Request: fold
Amino acid sequence: MNYIINKIKSFFTIIYSFVAQKTQGAIVLEYHSVNPNSKSFLSITPEAFLKQMLFLRSNNWNIISLLDLVTLIENGNEIPDKTVVITFDDGYKDNLDHAFPILEKYKIPATIFVPSALVGKSMVNREGYSLDLLSWDELSFLCQSNLITIGSHTATHAVLAGLDEDVSEAEISESKKNIEIKLDIECTLFAYPKGKNDENSRLLSKKYYKAAVATVPDRVDKNCDLYTIPRRGVYNYTSFIKFKTLLFR
Reply:
């Protein structure tokens, strides 16, 4: 019964989003893996990703980098309608193999958040799927494109909410330091693993970074809290109609 009720609610949400389209402010999209083979809920196919990026480009969405969005908020500027930002969590190798060629072809900027101590290794998700992570050399290559910004996702992908303050600070600060040393860049952006944060982790992210993203699915305006920037997730169950709903509701 709950399944049927949820399906009905989802149907009416989709209908409403197209009847009463919202385009004010920005939508920050959260991706993980772009992979033709993985069945993980975190993975979408390259074909789906291409269709989504083509939709944004062909419908004149204002695609900007996360850093540019942060600058707009810092300066108190109005965010142009139909603004969208692309982000990836975890730093999977398939971001280079399958997502980057599409981003490069259509000149779409994106931010990739990496857990620094896991770079070059693999991660096993809650479904038991293992996916390879980008190496430092691969991350360096992406940095050179001028389209990709590398941000921190802690050192070990630790969920920060409720952690001891010293442990949280080590996760947050060591990741920044390692990324900056390995890639010779300034690392100014942070993503909370699984989007979970508390007052302590927000204060620490403010100490080390210009901004931090979470996973609350709101729109972004000029008054947005820079340390809980909302994002809307795109997963393997996100149909193309649902993708458009994410943009307009």
